[in-house]
Each structure stands twice: as C-alpha cells, then as structure tokens.
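Fold these two proteins, one after the other.
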Amino acid sequence: MGRVFLKSFYSMGVMKILKKYNVAVIDDDMKSINLIKEEFMKLDKELGLHFITIGYLNPLEYLVEEKEYDFIFIDIDMPKMNGFDLAKKIYAINKKEKIIFMSESFDHILEGYLYRPYGFVLKNHLLALNLKKNVQKVLDILDKEDIYMTLIAQNGYQKISYKSIFYCRLNGRTISIFTSSGIYSKCVSMHTLSNELNQLGDFFRINKSEIVNLNYVKEIKNQQVILKNGTVLMASVRKWLLLRERFCNYRSKVIY
C-alpha cells in the first residue's frame, strides 16, 4: 500500500507534509483498543506522522471489511477466533501484511514465531515503549519496500508507489495507471511497462492491453478478474490458464 500524504498548516504559514498510515487493532477488549489508539496519538506528534487507527472487537468484522492496512495488531487470546487462526486467514488473503501480535503474557510468544509476525507487544507497563519499537521496525521495512515511478498528472508530474497500482490499461499512445490515489498516465509501450512491473513479482499481463496487480485481485472466474474494489477485468483466452496458475501460486504462498 502506498503512503498517502497529508498537508498540515501551522500558524506561521509553514506547510508540513505528513505521511499517513492505516492501523487495525483487533482485540476483544475495548479498553486495550483505546489504549493502543492513545499511544498512536502520542506517536503522531513524536514521529511527525499521521496514524489512522481502527479497532475491531470481532475478528470476523475485520475479515469482512477487506480494508488495506499498513499495521495489523492482533490480540492472541480472543474467544471467537484466536490471533493465530486469524493471522492464517489474513496471510491467505495477502501474504505481505504486517502483523504484530499482542498478549498479556509471554506464554504464546514462542508459538507465535511460527507465524512470522513483525513483532510482539506485551500489554503491561512497558506497552508504550514496546509499541514504539515495533512500529519503528515496521516503518523502516515499509520505507525500504516502497519503490516509486514518476507519472503524468493533471498538474505536472506525480511520484507514486508501485504498491498503490491496481491495474494498467493501454489507452491510445499512453497507458492509464489506476492507483489508490487516482488515475495517471505514462508514455511507454505496454511491453516495456510489463517487463518493468514483472521485476516486482506481483503483476500479471492479463491481455494485450491490461496489466493487473495480483495484490488487489479478489477472485478470478470465467476469465473474469475481479478486484477487491469491485472492478471487473477480462483475461484473454490465451492468458487465462497461465493467469490461473500464477494466481493460485500467489494465493498459496501463506506465511507460517
């Protein structure tokens, strides 16, 4: 997921650009959710960032919404679905999610490493320090993961993250690139762009004029490629079997 930038104005008229990060907190205890939210509000000021934190008391509510998050904090001890089972389901949808487990004790930490989380937060008197260390770790990873391309926008040029691209479509002599922040144009051949995106691993050319980011594909059926935002694209007959194979391989790479 590409970062979204917010403009913040100060009394002196100086403008500061803030990076926005979406955070999910999944815990059956509302007090814990509110405590995590409070800590992220402190990190807003301390790190000069903007964290939007959404809490879920029920893990199923999170799974149904299918929103994109930069951080996912999961309580291990939940009655309806424990944190490990939830992590399996999340990784099955998107193997690159940044999951951080939470617990009130050390009992589950060793077992938790089997799921390769990005960290653990103990819900005790050291929560604030522990949370900050884990957040900083993920921020460093996100910065390294972000690879950008420069595209033509209405007001000039715009630099966007490859991860924010939903799909690309040939449109005359240019290619329209549909992203989480808008639609942009790039003057390049379909062959060149396809080769460029293939190096990143998660893109697939489904026909002569369209390339899709597999991270945003919800399902494929009857040559239809259905994205998570509801967009429906059509794969060519020639590409269909290979697409099915690539998509199955992509979805099967679940991290444990």
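Now the second one:
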Amino acid sequence: MRIVLVDDEPLFLSMLGRMIAQIAPEHRVVGSYTGAETALAALVRDKPDLLISDIAMQGMDGLHLLERAREVWPDALRVVLSAYPDFSYAQRALQSSTLDYLLKPPNPGQLRELFDKAAAIAEQSKSARPAESGAALTAGPEELRPESEHQRIVRNVTRYLEQHFRESITHQTLESEFGLVGSYINKLFKKQMGCTLLDYLAQYRIEQAKLLLREQPTMLLKVVSARVGFDDPLYFSRVFRRIAGVSPSEFAKR
C-alpha cells in the first residue's frame, strides 16, 4: 500500500515513518507532511491507499483534512491518530467514514493489525471494479505471519513502558523485568520501532503530558512533569519543546 502521514510534530512523524518501514516493509510511505493544507494539495500526486492523520494541528485540523480528502482522493482509506481519547473526536471520525481511530503513539501490534485490515479492504475494492489503464496497483495483503520471539519481546516491552511510564525506567529496570540484557532489548526495540527505548518512552510521556494540559491548562508545570515520570520540571520542559515544538505553557494556551 501507498501511505501518507500527516502530523505537525516532525519528530513523531519521523519516528512513525521508521516504525512503519520496520514492521511493514511491504508497504511504502509516499508522503509525510506537517501541515494539513500541504497534505491535501499533494493527495492527487501521492495517490495514497491509506491516509493517517493527527487530529490537533495548527490551521486545518485532522478531521477537516479527512473530510476534504474524501472529496479530493476518495480511494484513500482514512485513519485518525490522536493523543486525545475523546469520544466526541472518535464519533466525528466515524461519521467521516474513517477506517480506524488510534491513540498516539501506536504500538507495533496496532499498526500491523491496521495495515492488514486496510490492505484487505483495498484489495476487495480493487477486485470490485475494473482495472483502469495506467492506474497504480495496490499491493494485496500478505498472509498473516506468526509473531516471532523478537516481536513478542518488543510487544511486551512496549506494553510495560506504557503501563509504567510514570515510574523511573532504565535499561536496568527492563533487565530485571524481562531477564534480558538491556542493550539487547534496546537493539531489538530500535530495529522494530525505528527509535530507542528511551526515545519512545519520552514521546509517550509527552503525549500523556499533552492530555493533562489539554484537560487542565492551568496545572502547575511541576505537577504535570511529576505525573508523567519526570523528576525535573526544567528537563521536562526541554524534552517537551524538543518533541512538541513549543513549551508546555505555549501548548496549554492553544
């Protein structure tokens, strides 16, 4: 499948692209955009089978983009990717005929399941209509592959990080939890996810911090940082700015 990604955070966009390349090499990211308007203008050129977009973006938001994309390039299946587990968002997404609604950051199992489902639907759609001359063919779904031992380890580590992100987590922590050398776990993780363990943990913590700031914009910085696993509010602010592109206080004012 041809995939287009849209998210206004370049670091997350890059991480997601690397993750897809690792876990689903049979599919190809043909476009990555940090703005909805730019992505919309490029849809006809990119001809995606799958469009994955964040919701909360500056300018045109993700839901508006997906609604417009249905008019501009109706062949693309549409997926919402959001840090906000808000039912109203999910409801609007479903009303816009989206394929799925995933919370950020998605884990490898969720993405693999999404791609298998999307590829099957794309194949059915292609079979249901006559082939157009010169049209790009969509890759059909591969047979479901059994989960390897390495994939199982990464899945379990990812789940552990997401369940214990408020706690102090080091390579030594994971060694004790999984009985494997920390550097080996990190090597497996980076190969499948496209980023290191600590990079993924930082990204996940910042996404959780965004949730808190969206729900309670006046929450003290030291409280937010402590609730998402950072002991030092100043360090938390630096990491937040590096990942989100703005400071926590600037994000809270949006």
